[in-house]
Amino acid sequence: MLLFYENSAMLFAMTASQAPRRKQAKPQLSQLAREIGVSAATVSKVVHGHPDVSDKTREKVEQALERAGYRRPATARPHSGYLEIAFRELDELWSMEMLRGLQACANEHGMNVSISELHTLGTPSDDWVEGLIKRNPVGVLLVFTDLTAEQAAKLARRHIPHAVSDPRGNALPGSAILRSDSWNGGVTATRHLIALGHTRIACISGNRIAAGARAREDGYRFALDEAGIPFDPDLCLPGEFTSKTGYEQALKLLRLPNRPTAIFTGNDLQALGAYKAARECGLRIPEDLSIVGFDDIPTAAMMAPALTTIRNPIAQLAHKAGELLIAMQQGQPVPHETVFPTSLVVRESTTAPPTQA
């Protein structure tokens, strides 16, 4: 079962469970309530996860509880039974692979998956974080986005663990980081083209905000340097991990006076766009132009010709993220970072360069 939330516009209501009172906790909470100028009932509602407290007041109480070192009882408001995944946009084929992996994990644990669409590659809005707290999932997987320290602290106080796939920068302590070995993938793709005899090799990377995009481009540059091929900045263009930017940037490359004989794209969608650009320029793949993608989404094998690409275990990564979130929710220690190996899948889109480009 899936639930979809667009920038926290849709929320589902939950009934909070009534937690048994702890005799020794009541005086402590009453004192804390007096110190911060709210009622003991308000503090109790926050402790037990009742939704009828304003965000401002809830945050005030949460911070006071944290300063006091108070730990919520295990019988506080139960989590929803959902794992949530947050994408920038839910219109990319690889996102379906992420969703498939997380859903498989949820099924194994008798859970469901909810989906958020953030419409940003940067930090999610505070409103989205507040909506997430109200939805109260078992944990959340963020894709290509990072939380601020304050946002992460809010989730931690509500015992909502988070994992990040391919963060933009250095992830915060307490989060689980999952990434593919993008640098090695970039090296492997470029070495493959070099071994075929190419020296005019272009790269259409992803959005350089994403660490994975930077790593793939760095791997490409390393392989060139390793082979003694000078790096040409005119042959290395940024992208957005979309077929549209793959098409637009490939057109620029193929219209150069000394065009490349091969292109390495940051993902398979950009390779799809490069296919279109090659056709418009009257070039045959691979006879006139070799193309290597990245991800190995199901569509890659169905392209004409079938795409040579770097296999990225997307579904496996998402499945592992779900396992880590569940373990974190149960208080088990988990590795701070998990790296998944990538590998080359040779199909029909690469061959030796033409004698004259």
Structure description:
The chain is of the alpha/beta class and 357 residues long. It has helices spanning 25-36, 40-47, 55-67, 93-108, 126-135, 149-157, 182-195, 211-226, 243-254, 268-280, 314-329; strands at 2-6, 82-87, 112-117, 139-143, 162-165, 176-180, 201-204, 236-237, 262-265, 290-295, 308-311, 337-340, 343-345. The strands form 2 sheets. A 7-stranded parallel beta sheet has the order 1-3-2-4-5-6-12, covered by helices on one side. Strands 8-7-9-10-11-13 form a 6-stranded mixed beta sheet, sandwiched between helices. Helix 1 packs across helix 2 (40-47), helix 4 (93-108) packs across helix 11 (314-329) and helix 9 (243-254) packs across helix 10 (268-280). The longest helix is centred in the N-terminal third of the chain and has 16 residues, at 93-108. It is elongated and about 85 Å long. The protein starts with a strand and ends in a 12-residue tail after the last strand.
Largest sheet: 7 strands, parallel
Compute the number of helices: 11
Return the CATH class of the largest domain.
Alpha Beta
Q: Helical content, roughly?
A: 25-40%
TL;DR?
This is LacI family DNA-binding transcriptional regulator. With 357 residues, this protein is an alpha/beta fold. It is built from eleven helices and 13 strands.
Secondary-structure blueprint:
Elements: E1 2-6, H1 25-36, H2 40-47, H3 55-67, E2 82-87, H4 93-108, E3 112-117, H5 126-135, E4 139-143, H6 149-157, E5 162-165, E6 176-180, H7 182-195, E7 201-204, H8 211-226, E8 236-237, H9 243-254, E9 262-265, H10 268-280, E10 290-295, E11 308-311, H11 314-329, E12 337-340, E13 343-345
Helix pairs in contact: 1-2, 4-11, 7-8, 9-10
